[in-house]
Structure formats: C-alpha cells, structure tokens
Amino acid sequence: MDDLVSTVWLAENFGLADVVVVDASWHMPATGRSGREEYLQSHIPGARFLDIDAVADTANPAPHMLPNAEEFGRAMGELGIGRDDRIVVYDNSTTRNSARGWFMLHHFGAEQVAILDGGFQKWLAEGRPTESGEPRPRKASFDAVERRGQVVSKLDVANGLGTPLIDARGRPRFEGTERPRFEGTEEDPRPGVAAGHIPGSRNLPYSELYNPDGTFKSRDEIRRLFIAAGADPEKPFVASCGSGVTANALIFAARLLGNRDTRLYDGSWSEWGADPATPKVKGPA
Asked: What is the pLDDT of residue 30?
C-alpha cells in the first residue's frame, strides 16, 4: 500500500479484513465544529474515529500532545485498530489533519499507514457510500513501540536543532504583528500565547500543499514550495505549527518526495509562545 491512496483504491479495498479506515477529523475550537459529532452523523463505512484530543497526554498543558506508547496502544486496541493492519486515515477538516493521525499511528509502530487523498470531501463529492453511528466492534491488538528520533522537545529547539525549522502556520499567524508594514497579520488565537514565531524558522503554510479539492499537489510543485520557503525537502528538517497538527502535513509531503529524516516539534507554538522565557520574533521570516 502506498503512503497516499486514492478514493478509487479505497472504494475497491475498504471491505477487506486487514484494511482499517480511520477518521481523524479535528477542528479549531473557534469553528464550533465537532469532529466526533460529524463522524457519528456520516463517515466512510467501517471507519473508526481517532480523537486526537482524547488520545493524548492530557496532563500536559499544551493541547493534544502525544501520549506514551502504552496509552496509545491501549486506545487503538479499544478502537479496533491493529498495528499490523493496513490503515487508511482521512479527515473532513480544513486543517487537513489526517496527517496528524497518520503521524501518530506511524510513530507508534504501524508499518502500513496511508492518507486518503482528498479526504472525506472527495469521497462525498464522488457519491460514494457512507454510514452513521458507531462502527461494529472489531478485535485488534496494537503493540505500540515509540519510534525514537521523530519528535523534538522545547529544550531541543532552544538548544539549537542543527537543521531547519519549518512552521506550517498561515503567514498572518507566523508573522504575528499589527505594525502597518505587515498588514494582514494577526495575533495567536489561543489565550496566553504570544504572537510571532521561533527565531530562525521558515514559513511554509500547510494549505499551500493542497489543491482546491483537498488532494496533494504534484511532487514537483511540493518540491518548489519547500525550496521557495528556504528549505530542501529532501534533507532533514523539523516541522512546527500552532499545536502540532498541521506540521505533520509538511512531514508527510516531504515523505512523498522520499524524505525519511524529518522530526516534529510536538509542542509547537502553543508551547513555545506560552513560555515568557522563550525568544520570539515578529514579521516575515
């Protein structure tokens, strides 16, 4: 199974015993939308719902931080997702957060994890089948093992990474200043989180990686976008964003180009911007 699968592929394979579909939809709180509620109303037949707010280190003040391996494995088993399954993740969100679900599953040991290109929106647009409510129970075991070296901490970032840091937030939030020459910028939406970005970071808004229908742009276009942002997509880098969700789109896009040497700053700006001791910069990169 490829890292990125089409709706045609999924329509032909979603009924197979070892293919598990996962809805990882999540929405910014300000939207008033609930990924779980929308999932219960309509989802791809058999899909399980991965709640990234619930399957998380809830003791950490930063939102939806990765849980430990034991907690993740237990949660996946309860959902009916096996580590050895062929797992296809999709979303129904403007933040394209299927990449977060993909990263979590891969990070904790699943070998065959793909993203559905175009997500639920494309599935619906093509008139494909859906169902509502909870899926049928499914026995599964997920012996989670954390892959080391895929995640960096605030301390790692503060001490210097030795590789580029690419921020996936939109430019207004990345620049985070209201000075006239930076018109169109904005403050961070989370209370207590400063505006701006980590010194030295580059900016590639995750939304630029996608076509209007939610499918990924061509490999050549993805490569061009990284280079325009000042980063080589085929060399090591660390991805960051607002809260560790959209950064995974950068990691996945680079994977489509063959890059297997990327890392995630899981705390991202929600952690860095909330700490009064960390250095912050406003304006363009």
From this structure: 84
- Rounded to whole angstroms, how far apart are CA atoms 258 and 252? 10
The answer to whether residues 31 and 108 touch, using CB atoms and an 8 Å cutoff, is no
Q: Is the pLDDT of residue 36 over 50?
A: yes
Distance CA 235, CA 202 (A): 14
Cα–Cα distance, 244 to 26 (Å, whole number): 12
Those residues whose C-beta lies under 8 Å from the C-beta of residue 171, and which sit 6 or more positions away, are 184, 185, 203, 205, 284
Model confidence, pTM: 0.94
* DSSP symbol at 218: P
Rg (CA), the chain: 18
User: What pLDDT score was predicted for residue 180?
Assistant: 43
Residues 153-201: tens digit of each pLDDT: 999 999 998 999 999 999 999 998 654 444 444 455 666 789 999 999 9
Do 14 and 46 contact (CB within 8 A), yes or no?
yes
**Catalytic position from the list 19, 105, 241, 256:** 241
What's the first-to-final CA gap in the chain, in angstroms? 38
Cross-strand pairs, 8:
none
Active site residue 68: no
Task: Report DSSP letters for 86-155, one per residue.
Answer: EEEEE--STT-THHHHHHHHHHTT-S-EEEETTHHHHHHHTT---B-SPPPP--------PPTTSEE-HH
Which residues lie below 8 Å from residue 220, measured CB to CB, with a gap of 6+?
A: none
Calculate the average pLDDT of the chain. Answer: 94
Distance CA 12, CA 48 (A): 18
Token digits for 103?
């990263």
Taking 90 as the threshold, does the pLDDT of residue 29 lie above it? Answer: no
